[in-house]
Design brief:
By secondary structure, the protein is of the alpha+beta class. It folds into two domains: 8-156 and 425-445, Adenine-n6-DNA-methyltransferase TaqI, Chain A, domain 2, CATH 3.90.220; 220-372, Adenine-n6-DNA-methyltransferase TaqI, Chain A, domain 2 (Alpha-Beta Complex), CATH 3.90.220.20. It contains twelve helices and 20 strands. A hairpin with a 7-residue loop joins β7 (74-77) and β8 (85-87). It starts with 7 loop residues before the first strand and ends in an 11-residue tail after the last helix.
Length: 456
């Protein structure tokens, strides 16, 4: 990589000290004492002390005192998830290193600023070397021996400060933008839920009823069993699952977006002979399906409803049901709106039996009372919901694009900084080569540690 003429390239150990934590065993863990880091505790460039485990204070004093961290230390994960970073604050102390986490400190603030070292550890220049040097097939890992080989581009000291000041300002704005974008998915979810609430309460089409001189009394409240019949899926033998044949709709195919989705990971087949043997379980396009089993009530998985929008035949597996209108008019489009509404979700939450696996029985579904407008108003409700949801989907797409672009800003700015392109060079700055010479001279002049003879 080309760098400005007053920069210098060196190996990381020439300008920074790094130390990996010790390997600790579970039998050493205590309920109180000195907390120690693990990868999970590094969150948003800070340490979450509530996730720390502890070592006995006496054991730390006797064996691990040199692994205690200091205010301002940089810690970085070097195993599993590479590059999770945090700066140690005074309020974090006392705190100890652990294996898979490395502490970094600049050797001399007159040569390299700690602020600049932090930026290096966030940069692609560091992370790419870490990925290249990492070992392990199941879990990547780097250690001090790898770090000792890393290249480091050192600018003059005043330029380091200019770079750090500039990035602190710009990245703060990037982070603020990212935070605002991260709040939007929840707002869009509430927007969709408010649409569904208005749709199933009559507020969404209140003006339509006024225009058509239809009163609120036109709504009635039957049980679902009076409107539709329910068909439960069949328990097809998993021993016959295959890579090709007729598709099998399973709970994992019911996507939170409201459509049946297929991927290489979630698609299972059965031999075509099953479709011929069980034709009543073969589904086509337009089927309304619901999941009847979940391990928890999170993510609205129990009672999740989807439309099958493709025409490829698929078998209906157990734990999923399909709905069929009892009258000549098809009420399923309106039910698709109602089943996604907060009113129905509140009903599903009352079905929590406290068991590990949550179930919804067809008897409970059939006896559930719902608000139903006239057939013409159902059509209008569905039309308006589809228009508003399409608008929300477009916002989702624009949001995804914006989040991707913002996510690329920080790496791009850091890369620009470490190419020497972020701030202007000043010819009056002392070249980095002189800083390295001074540091080398200090190291040479430092007293050498004496080696004692081993005792017999």
């Amino acid at each position: 990589m080309n760098i400005p003429c007053n920069w210098s390239t060196c190996k990381l150990p020439l300008v920074a000290y790094f130390q990996e934590g010790p390997g600790l065993r579970k039998y050493q863990y205590r309920d109180k004492g000195i907390p120690f880091l693990n990868i999970r505790t590094l969150i948003n460039e800070s340490v979450d002390l509530s996730l720390c485990k502890f070592l006995d204070e006496d054991e730390v004093d006797q064996k691990y005192i040199h692994f205690l961290l200091n205010e301002g230390d940089l810690v970085c994960s070097t195993s599993g998830t590479l590059g999770k970073l945090a700066t140690i604050k005074a309020s974090d102390l006392p705190l100890m290193l652990n294996t898979s986490v490395v502490r970094f400190r600049t050797l001399d603030q007159a040569v390299m600023l700690q602020r600049f070292l932090r930026l290096y550890l966030k940069s692609e220049g560091f992370l790419s070397q870490a990925r290249l040097a990492s070992t392990g097939s199941a879990q990547v890992n780097i250690g001090p021996s790898h770090l000792a080989t890393f290249d480091f581009s050192l600018p003059p000291l005043p330029e380091q400060k200019r770079i750090a000041d500039k990035l602190d300002s710009v990245l703060a704005r990037v982070d603020a933008c990212r935070d605002r974008l991260d709040r939007l998915p929840a707002l869009l979810k509430r927007f969709r839920q408010s649409i569904l609430t208005a749709a199933t309460s009559g507020r969404l089409t209140e003006d339509w009823r006024e225009q058509n001189a239809i009163g609120n009394e036109s709504w009635h409240y039957p049980m679902i069993g009076n409107l539709v019949a329910i068909k439960n899926g069949r328990a097809f033998p998993s021993a016959d699952y295959a890579d090709e044949g007729v598709r099998l709709i399973r709970p994992g195919n019911l996507h939170h977006s409201g459509s049946v989705q297929w991927s290489a990971k979630n698609t299972t087949h059965l031999p075509e002979s099953y479709a011929r043997e069980f034709p009543t379980f073969v589904l086509g396009k337009g089927e309304l399906l619901m999941n009847l089993t979940a391990q928890s009530l999170k993510d609205d998985f129990l009672g999740r409803v989807c439309l099958k929008t493709d025409s490829v035949p698929a078998l209906l597996n157990q734990r999923i049901c399909a709905f069929y209108s009892k009258s000549s008019s098809d009420i399923r489009p309106y039910l698709f709106v109602y089943f996604r509404s907060p009113v129905f979700r509140s009903y599903v939450e009352t079905l929590d039996s406290g068991t590990l696996i949550k179930h919804m029985h067809t008897k409970q579904l059939l006896s559930h009372v719902i608000p139903v407008p006239t057939e013409n108003e159902q059509t209008e409700i569905v039309r308006r919901v589809e228009i508003l949801f399409a608008f929300a989907d477009r916002l989702d797409a624009r949001l995804a694009t914006a989040r991707k672009q913002v996510g690329q800003l920080t790496p791009a700015l850091l890369a620009k900084a470490f190419r020497g392109e972020l701030v202007a060079q000043d010819p009056a700055d002392e070249p980095a080569a002189e800083l390295l010479k001074r540091l080398a001279a200090q190291r040479e002049a430092a007293p050498k540690a004496k080696r004692g003879r081993a005792r017999a």
